[in-house]
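User: Could you write out the 3D structure of this protein bound to iron/sulfur cluster? I've included everything you need below.
Assistant: Certainly. Input first, then the structure.
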Amino acid sequence: MAKEVWVDKEDCITCGLCVDNLPEVFRYDDDEKAEAFNSSGASEDEIQSEAIDQCPVGCIHWKD
Ligand code: SF4
């Protein structure tokens, strides 16, 4: 099974990076915090390099 990605919304500063880079995976919720709605919308490598590694507050994680 593909790995699942999630956003720790408490720490999200709504910078837009993950939503802009991977709109097939991330979107804003009603509070304008990012959420991962589709972990299979991009490859694990893309999610790692274009979202997790670049989030300025490091609040995007893989589920165990
Ligand atoms: Fe929030 Fe991080 Fe996404 Fe920026 S990159 S919108 S801080 S989860």
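The domain at 5-62 is CATH 3.30.70.20 (Alpha-Beta Plaits).
User: Perfect, thank you.
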